[in-house]
Amino acid sequence: MDIRVDDLNGPEIAALLQEHLRNMALHSPPESIHALDLAALRKPEITFWTVWQGSELMGCGAIKELDSRHGEIKSMRTSSGHLRKGVAAGLMRHMLEEAGRRCYRRLSLETGSMEAFAPARSLYAGFGFRFCGPFADYVEDPYSVFMTRALGSTAMDAEIQRAGVADAQSILALQRLAYESEARIYNDWSIPPLIQTLDQMIEELAASHFLKATLEGALIGSVRARLVGGRCEIGRLIVHPDFQRRGLGSLLMAAIEQAFPAADRFELFTGSLSEGNIRLYQSLGYRRIRLHEVSARVTLVYMEKRR
Question: What 3-state class would DSSP assign to 67?
Answer without folding.
Answer: strand
